[in-house]
Amino acid sequence: MTVVYGECTPSYATVKRWAAEIRQGRNSLEVEPRSGRPSEAVCEENCRAVENTVLQNRRVNVQLIADAVGISNGSVKTILRKHLLMRKVCARWVPQMLDQKMNDCRCELSSENLKLMQWDWNLFLKRIVTDDETWIHHYDPESKQQSMQWKHASSPSPLKFKVQASAGKIMCTIFWDAEGILLIDFVPRKVTITGVYNADLLHKLRLSIKEKRRGKLTKVPLLLHDNAAAHRSHVGQAATLESGCEEMHHLLHSPDLAPSVTICFQI
Which tens digits make up the pLDDT trace of 85-98? Predict the structure, then answer.
């Protein structure tokens, strides 16, 4: 049997039990009818009642369904799993609850970006210039010479911990494209990123593109950034056109597409 059926071969105990029943006169492998009253709980009427109860409140538990329909918990589970093909799952976290207007806007912007991509994939990637702001923590570690101290021969060696509180943090703005980093700007202390500050950055970006990516401005770079107030201001919009860039529409409530933290760690 192992040679013929392979992994589907029944166990030795099952074969032994079948052989014993066949010796006793049994000539069929079908399930024989059992004595007693047949189960009447799993019927079409109860299936509809269970389904209606679940559709009214999808968080209802099995006990409440059984009390409402008047059947046992086991019958409710059988109806849910085998007849209605339903199972209870946990809710999944999503970034934002979008209404129909937001979904339509996302579909429209995605279609526009898809058309640009299908027209020329390589040119589309080369035109994109993205930016993001992030906080960078800086540390003042001691050198080996600075950490040296006198000790007795029997005294334990001094320790220097790798994990320590940061000496401070600074806001960093990074611009980059498919070929690498174009511009890194560190915001001075007690300075807020406004539309005017963002406009100055875009002018610096134009000079950086001229220096590092010759011929890129003639292809009109696509500037991809989030919907921050400094980016959406009239001054920022005007600076985008003055710098020779075209703004690439950003999807509403979309995940962050600019992982600046990873790039900061790499540099």
Answer: 988 888 877 767 77
